[in-house]
Model the fold of this input.
Amino acid sequence: MEIKILKDILGANEQIAARNRALLDSNNVFAVNLMSSPGAGKTCLILETIKRLKGKTKIGVIEGDVSSSLDAETIGKEEVPVIQINTGGECHLDANMTHNALNNMPLQDIELLLIENVGNLICPAEFALGEHKKVLVSSIPEGDDKPFKYPLMFHEADVVLINKIDLLPYLKFDTEAFSQVIKGINRNIEIFQISCVTGQGIEQWVSWLLTQTSQR
Amino acid sequence: MEIKILKDILGANEQIAARNRALLDSNNVFAVNLMSSPGAGKTCLILETIKRLKGKTKIGVIEGDVSSSLDAETIGKEEVPVIQINTGGECHLDANMTHNALNNMPLQDIELLLIENVGNLICPAEFALGEHKKVLVSSIPEGDDKPFKYPLMFHEADVVLINKIDLLPYLKFDTEAFSQVIKGINRNIEIFQISCVTGQGIEQWVSWLLTQTSQR
Done:
């Protein structure tokens, strides 16, 4: 019974996600669903991305949080369109919440939409939003065992950004082993090593984003 | 309709949690529900706790993960009774999973039960397991804005352990402001600053645990 309810919820979500995708495509918007644990650096990454892509592509942002509008306020200072979704307890964004946000986003004025999901390595992996790519931010302090514990998230991601590599000297984290395990779960995954603090690797990431956006 | 289902689930969970609590009490076992983001240091904390309390109290461990038995294998080396729960996709432990684990735990032979919940700052806060105290491990690299984004978790916790304070020199984190915000959400909360790597603050934590355990 519980499984049936979950299937119904996921099925309905897929339908709305397909409509979101069609809406994005008709406006030539490339959309990325950014997922991670709490505090892995999604908001900082969005800020760095906006700074580097200013004048190169037009960005919009959807911020997802259980509570607060802290991130939307931070992003809003960069003078890009931003919509905050508060899930009010739900541990992930879903297609319907995203649909409501898209209705309030000037889609004809943007080319790249960054959707920051709720900080959670589990449920967001199950709920499509209509995005073109799923990007997982995985940070060094979380430890290199996370793919074993949250395999679905690593399986679903198109890109993994290994963030906070500036902290490598102070922590045990085997980047090579981590990358091998991820590729074992998901052979076609793209991996970038980045630091939003030092800027290392951010050029490669925004270059990938720009290529994807220009292909829409 | 969805809200009604959630209420039913939570109501049924509370009933089983009350039974778990009675079972723990009848065996004079003090139980702690350890919660945190992925990679905040729960397993490392359990290891340090076991090492320091060896010969002082008898410990059992329940390990909760979506997938893998990595943590149970690590803890098992310390020669304490350990049960791994794999939730198979569920983003939190619930009272029923805990009940099944308790049935396989030699309760008459332990005095302190450490339950490591699934790494998630959202849903575990809603599901009582029958524990006596909820302990939240919040680590420095996650950032000091987490109480604003995950208020329920900080509201429900009895204790917050600020972990990885050895990384303070390398990160922006205002410990004083963080503590003030938490106390604003939850006036009676106890806060310890710890590092599982350097051992700082661990004595105070195990001393608190030992006092609680001896009061059963």
